[in-house]
Amino acid sequence: MAAVFAGFLLALMLRYPMQSVQAAADGLRTFAQGVLPALFPYMVLCQLLSPALSRMRRVPRALPVTALAFLGGSPGGARLIALLCAQGALTPRQMRTFAALTGTCSPMFLLGTVSAWACSHALGVCLLLSHWLGAALCALCVRAFDRCGASPSAALPPQPPAPQGISLACAIQGSAQAMLTVGGCIALMTVAARLCACAFPALGSGAQAALHAALEMAGGTHAILSLGLPPRTAAVCVCAAVSFGGISVLLQNLSFLRPVGISVPYLTLCRALHALFAASLCRLLYPLLSRALPAAAFPVASPAAGAAAFPMLSALWIMAGLAALGLGKRHARARQINSARG
Q1: Angstrom distance (rounded) from CA 118 to CA 225
Q2: Closest CA relative to residue 207, chosen from 237, 236, 232
Q3: CA 284 from centroid of its chain's CA atoms
Q4: Are 81 and 102 in contact (CB under 8 A)?
Q5: Burial class (CB in 10 A: 0-12, 13-18, 19+), 257
Q6: Cα gap 6→293, rounded to integer Å
Q7: Which of 116-125, 273-282, 306-315, 322-331 comes out lowest in average pLDDT?
Q8: How far apart are CA 292 and CA 288, in angstroms?
Q9: How many CB atoms lie within 10 A of CB 222?
Q10: What DSSP character marks residue 158?
Q11: 124-149 pLDDT tens trace
């Protein structure tokens, strides 16, 4: 499947070379101006703090890990989980729960970038609250289904003792290599979104925005806000897109989580559940903040723009159903394994 997608993109790059170069430049500009300044220092500090977190006994480890992941956003939380797993500080069940909990977006993006695009700080606050609460509900749901799979034998194999400290030079070097992966994912998915828009102009602006959001979250969010949807519908669609993260963020997180045992289907289903919970919460919270939203926050909606939201919302519900089905099968399989052991 990956080879087919790569071949398809390569053919489109040869067909639309100028658009491909411009899209890559736009993606790298977004990375350099909006992602690198905030994420790189965060990754360095997380690596410096990871030995202390692995030795933590009196304070529940979930509190600092969750706080660092929520404040930094993806893929910083995934990298922190991978560091703690390498130091033997997490069991498989804890690792899966943290993977479902920490796949969040940076609050700087929601409160700064998205609020500026929509001309509404209150919208950013509504999105951030819905996004964080949705992640918490997703983690609770996953942990409840994963309860049957927990057993003493599920612990990680013995790991070498956690290092006493990490030098600043090593932390900077490791974080710089991680940022190359982040920048590459953003540039590649931006190119994919632009080429698909060139290849399928008949899809319409709504479907193109949904496809862009599914591939690359930041550009897709801007495209959704530019559709002219009703404010509440736009907020729900943006919250769903940000919470799912798109393939770009999924690849960034998988680059750190897959080596420690998190599979692609599991992380995809978690992000689909997160998108469903967050979008539902946003729909409930938006009326509470509607009076604080300026009337000029969004362009005037048109009937075509309102109908354009239907593909995105339908895809969200389909993904959520697949997520529930996948977790249910995992729960049943774990129960059968435990029954056989008993």
Answers
A1: 7
A2: 237
A3: 22
A4: yes
A5: buried
A6: 42
A7: 306-315
A8: 9
A9: 18
A10: P
A11: 888 999 999 999 999 999 888 876 54
